[in-house]
């Protein structure tokens, strides 16, 4: 901390060593195979970079939301298994099957499309998704026997292989998640009775993987935890032995000494109450800094902690630093690793009334990512 490199306006540093260590730590905790979830550009960290670090840390598989994300990882040279589970209506899967992208299947139509893309040489690899209460995608329990029977028929024809069966939890309560687990186990029994023998049963994301050991099954799909953030309200990253991988920082772009009574930013929601110094931080809501955190979002400058004063604008916000000796070019850290003195992404989430997932995934394209390894 201190000064920013000359010429750098703003950046998000991504500590790939942290991602690697987080996967290793979580892998030890859960004791089963880890699917690293790198959807949404690796939660804003860079999908290929996150994937590489996660594989180095012991993840054996990757997951994304849509096939296009999987194809981009293949183009980046990643050859680990990749699962994609949300598809456009009427999607066809020729390129996915050709490039070895595994398909999450939520409807009979998707199953048919997967089989149509599969060949005897290269069957489509599918994971059947059962809806167990979340109310999103997944095969409805009433349709599950039919989908399993059809999948078994297509498997016998050599058009596809059912590698996995999966579902997703609501994290409403342990009781709700255990009820979903029971529904899932019934679904697995139906699949077996239909003649399927999926090697990978998976249900848990980071929260359940840590907190509800019975949901770990054959493998877990870990997203937020591999980036070093806690999915829990009552436990920090450090409590879980995780290190936040993303640090968002900027160079103080301007400093101005002002008298008492100076209005700050649109709407003058902040007025200085004494002579003070205002520092301008060149990050705004276009960069993903939540405007809802106006007047509250934390920032450290020169290692001292302040908060956004007045409204966060599209490109910038102002910090009232009092008489602290702040200069143009000083480093302003919005969030990073709290054990190193930075505010946390979770504090920004709290200030904005959201969750840390949203804070890191929304950091905008105008913020260069720079890979580091601590
Ligand atoms: C995003 C997602 C995950 C990862 O969730 P985390 O809470 O970030 O670990 C796992 N499974 C599914 C289906 C998801 O959509």
Unreliably modeled segments: none
Mean pLDDT: 97
CATH superfamily descriptor of the largest domain: Alanine racemase
Query: Which molecules are bound in this entry?
Result: pyridoxal-5'-phosphate
SSE ordering: EHEHHEHEHEHEHEHEHEEEEEEEEEEHHE
- Order of adjacent strands in the largest pleated sheet: 11-14-17-16-15-18-10-1-19
Reported for the largest beta sheet, the result is: 9 strands, mixed
Helical segment count: 11
Strand proportion, as a percent range, falls in: 15-25%
Number of domains: 2
Please report the distance between the alpha carbons of the first and last residues.
14 Å
Number of DSSP strand runs = 19
Rough shape?
elongated
**Into which percent range does the helicity of residues fall?**
25-40%
Question: What is the third-level CATH name, the topology of the largest domain?
Answer: TIM Barrel
Computed over alpha carbons, the radius of gyration is 24 Å
**CATH architecture grouping of the largest domain:** Alpha-Beta Barrel
> Can you tell me the CATH class of the largest domain?
Alpha Beta
Structural class: alpha/beta
Task: Produce a short descriptive summary.
With 374 residues, this protein is of the alpha/beta class. It is 29% helix and 24% strand. The protein has 11 helices and 19 strands.
What does it look like?
By secondary structure, this protein is an alpha/beta fold. The chain folds into 2 domains: 32-227, Alanine racemase (TIM Barrel, Alpha-Beta Barrel); 245-372, Lyase, Ornithine Decarboxylase, Chain A, domain 1 (Beta Barrel). The protein is built from 11 helices and 19 strands. The protein has a 9-stranded mixed sheet. Strands 8-7-6-5-4-3-2-9 form an 8-stranded parallel sheet. Strand 12 (263-264) and strand 13 form a beta hairpin. Helix 1 crosses helix 3. The model has no long low-confidence stretch (mean pLDDT 97). It binds pyridoxal-5'-phosphate. The site of pyridoxal-5'-phosphate has 12 residues, from helix 9 and strand 9.
């Amino acid at each position: 901390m201190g000064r920013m490199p000359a010429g750098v306006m703003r950046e998000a540093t991504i500590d790939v060593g942290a991602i690697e260590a987080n996967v290793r730590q979580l892998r030890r905790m859960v004791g089963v195979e880890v699917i690293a979830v790198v959807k949404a550009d690796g939660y804003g960290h860079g999908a290929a970079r996150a994937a590489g670090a996660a594989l180095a840390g012991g993840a054996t598989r990757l997951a994304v939301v849509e096939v296009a994300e999987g194809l981009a990882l293949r183009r980046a040279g990643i050859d680990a298994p990749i699962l994609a589970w949300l598809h456009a209506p009427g999607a066809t899967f020729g390129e996915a099957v050709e490039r070895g992208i595994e398909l999450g299947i939520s409807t009979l139509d998707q199953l048919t499309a997967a089989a149509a893309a599969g060949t005897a040489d290269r069957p489509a690899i599918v994971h059947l998704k059962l809806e167990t209460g979340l109310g999103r995608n997944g095969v409805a329990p009433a349709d599950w026997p039919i989908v399993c029977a059809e999948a078994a028929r297509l498997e016998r024809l050599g058009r596809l292989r059912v590698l996995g069966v999966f579902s997703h939890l609501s994290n409403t309560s342990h009781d709700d998640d255990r009820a979903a687990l029971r529904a899932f186990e019934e679904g697995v029994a139906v699949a077996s009775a239909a003649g399927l023998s999926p090697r990978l049963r998976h249900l848990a994301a980071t929260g359940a993987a840590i907190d509800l050991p019975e949901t770990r099954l054959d493998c877990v799909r870990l997203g937020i935890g591999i980036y070093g953030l806690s999915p829990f309200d009552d436990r920090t990253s450090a409590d879980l032995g995780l290190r936040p991988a993303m640090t968002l920082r900027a160079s103080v772009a301007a400093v101005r000494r002002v008298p008492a009574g100076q209005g700050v930013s649109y709407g003058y929601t902040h007025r200085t109450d004494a002579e003070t110094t205002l520092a301008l931080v060149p990050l705004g809501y276009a960069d993903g800094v939540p405007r809802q955190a106006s007047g509250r979002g934390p920032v450290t400058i020169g290692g001292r902690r302040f908060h956004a004063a007045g409204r966060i604008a599209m490109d910038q916000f102002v910090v009232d630093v009092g008489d602290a000796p702040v200069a143009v070019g000083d480093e302003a850290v919005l969030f990073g690793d709290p054990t190193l003195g930075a505010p946390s992404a979770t504090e920004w989430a709290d200030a904005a009334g959201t969750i840390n997932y949203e804070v890191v995934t929304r950091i905008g394209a105008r913020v260069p990512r720079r890979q580091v390894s601590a």
